[in-house]
Amino acid sequence: MLRILFISFIVLSGYNSFANADTIAIKKHLKNITKTASYRNYENLKQLNAIANYIKSDFSKYSSNVSFQEYKVDGKIYKNVICSFGPEKGQRIIIGAHYDVCGDQEGADDNASGVVGLLELAQQLKGQKLNKRIDLIAYTLEEPPYFRTEHMGSYIHAKHLKDNKIDVLGMISIEMIGYFSDKANSQEYPLAAMAKVYGNKGDYITLVSTQEKGKFVKEFSDHFKQSKSIKTEEFNAPASLPGIDFSDHLNYWNFGYSAMMITDTSFYRNKNYHKKTDKMETLDIARMAKVIDGIYLALLKLTK
Question: Which positions carry the signal peptide feature in this UniProt record (predicted)?
């Protein structure tokens, strides 16, 4: 009876501390994003826009504040998709993931996994009373040939924040969160000595930032680890270390924001990276769901 009363209190108060990302929904989203008529790269604009529309439609189930941020590259219109929760004028936390792929491949881990993370977070955040604004953003044009250029969707968004003097607490890039392995020697590193610290199994998620990570990154990382949703390691290293800045968070660093990446370490673990074998069938859906739960619980700590 006490347990029933406690759960009732949680539901009525709108505070879901028992996060539980929906693995069935995760599989559905992965299928809808990756098993498409053509590949969602910059050359297939029709397919890219179809995925943007899919993301916007799903976001709209959970928030009334959903929009496209459109911009032009080489005469074509590309779109970021933005979904907001919390006070309109509140200090913002940015959670982003890119929905485009590199070349002709499905891109399940890179980066449908991150986009599905955004969609699940939207479902979890619906109805929550927040004291800060959370913007979930699905970026376009993260992949080559636009990586590290001003045409990246995340560059466009970060510049908009800076130009408009919008108060941003920090940013999180969700970049490949679905591939795990319990096999020995399944995890590689940019420096061989790191294996002695972190082990040789790809059985954890990483929180990645520079050594000058800032207050937001420290607080989010502490809350994520305290959630104990999944085995977690932190990588705080110079941006020059290969892989540290290989995602959308780099543009927020460039504009002076505290930012980080959550990742399964990409090509240091997942050998399907940027290959046709990067398919949803290779992903660990259960552990992917636990990563999403950890993000959600950490965000609640930061916004309650």
Answer: 1-21
